[in-house]
């Protein structure tokens, strides 16, 4: 047996969802993993086998099951029978039950992929309750692996002395050189994400209506799926909704955009923004802390966003500036910076 195997570190990832950005981020963590790390994914299986979302990663698989009530105990049983050196819990629900049921002696890394108590759309009472739960669970957390400076600040506010480490997201699609925007190209904006409150489809609806009232038509597309009611409302506002797509199909939809517009009301740090920048698509983001800190162009309201969209699409120099801001962001958030951060988290624990 080689020394690399002798000194390897076993990481068990607990993931409760198979669509959206979280499993894509976990795939990137595994692909960009430093050498000498062995991975196991504990997630719900589909038709008796691991979900196709994991097909391209080198990992062992365990079935988390579909029942929310049974997932905590299935996790405890799986961890007791494993050789895990580190448990890495991804997003809020696994973050909660993993920290409650983990066997003693196995350290926990928790990646919230955005804290729910940061959601401005929920009541103050609910945010307070969720923050209180996270503060209690922080005492059972060894490392918060967060996506942005804003998320790091939120984690530190939870106290309990847990280490906070920033692990940047990285683009999940192949890079493409930026292309000049042809003046006769379709004027098309798009957003990638789950049709759910966090991504704020209502903002895209308002943007589409503002743009429809302008002098030049602008197409709008929502790349993703989810809630049927949101899908219907978007379509009624003239926004094309693709539904869930394979990664190559998402890439083609991105490549057809003139401008990527991110509407989410809060984020840890969105993969889709990095994906758009990697494909050379100029990015305009909503003014939220995680985006504001990386220097992208941002907007505050639907009217402000529509004005920014028109200005960018009418001005090649402004569009190029938006592209360059995306390139500078990618220089900080890429496979190399991610691998270095993961190495420090998994081995440093």
Automatic annotation (TrEMBL):
GO molecular function annotation: glycosyltransferase activity
CDD domains with a match to the protein in the record: GT4_PimA-like
Xref: Gene3D superfamilies: Glycogen Phosphorylase B
Superkingdom, taxonomy of origin: Bacteria
InterPro entries in alphabetical order: Glyco_trans_4-like_N (IPR028098), Glycosyltransferase_grp1 (IPR050194)
Keywords, comma-separated and alphabetical: Glycosyltransferase, Transferase
Domain Glycosyltransferase subfamily 4-like N-terminal: 35-169
UniProt feature coiled coil, ranges: none
PANTHER family named among the record's database cross-references: SULFOQUINOVOSYL TRANSFERASE SQD2
Name of the molecule in the record: D-inositol 3-phosphate glycosyltransferase
Source organism of the structure: Microbacterium algihabitans
């Amino acid at each position: 047996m080689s020394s690399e195997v002798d000194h390897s570190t076993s990481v068990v990832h607990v993931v409760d969802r198979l669509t959206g950005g979280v499993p894509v981020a976990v795939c990137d963590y595994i692909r960009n993993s430093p050498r000498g790390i062995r991975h196991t994914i504990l997630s719900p299986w589909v038709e008796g086998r691991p979900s196709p979302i994991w097909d391209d990663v080198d990992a062992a698989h365990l079935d988390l099951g579909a029942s929310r009530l049974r997932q905590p105990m299935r996790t405890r049983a799986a961890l007791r029978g494993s050789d895990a050196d580190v448990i890495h819990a991804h997003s809020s629900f696994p973050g909660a039950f993993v920290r409650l049921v983990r066997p003693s002696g196995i350290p926990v890394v928790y990646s919230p992929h955005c804290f729910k108590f940061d959601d401005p759309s929920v009541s103050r009472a609910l945010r307070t309750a969720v923050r209180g739960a996270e503060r209690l669970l922080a005492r059972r957390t060894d490392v918060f692996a967060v996506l942005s400076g804003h998320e790091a600040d939120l984690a530190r506010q939870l106290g309990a002395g847990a280490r906070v480490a920033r692990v940047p997201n990285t683009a999940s699609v192949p890079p493409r050189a930026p292309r000049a925007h042809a003046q006769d190209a379709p004027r098309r904006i798009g957003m990638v994400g789950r049709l759910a409150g966090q991504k704020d489809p209502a903002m895209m609806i308002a943007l589409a209506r503002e743009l429809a009232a302008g002098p030049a038509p602008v197409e709008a597309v929502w790349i993703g799926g989810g809630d049927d009611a949101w899908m219907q409302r978007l379509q009624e506002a003239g926004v094309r909704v693709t539904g869930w797509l394979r990664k190559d199909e998402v890439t083609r939809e991105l490549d057809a955009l003139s401008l990527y517009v991110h509407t989410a009301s809060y984020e840890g740090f969105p993969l889709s923004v990095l994906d758009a920048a990697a494909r050379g698509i100029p990015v305009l983001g909503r003014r939220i802390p995680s985006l504001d800190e990386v220097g992208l162009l941002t907007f505050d309201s639907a009217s402000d966003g529509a004005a920014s969209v028109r200005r960018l699409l009418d001005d090649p120099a402004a569009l190029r500036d938006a592209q360059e801001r995306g390139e500078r962001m990618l220089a900080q958030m890429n496979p190399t910076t991610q691998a270095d951060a993961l190495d420090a988290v998994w081995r440093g624990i």
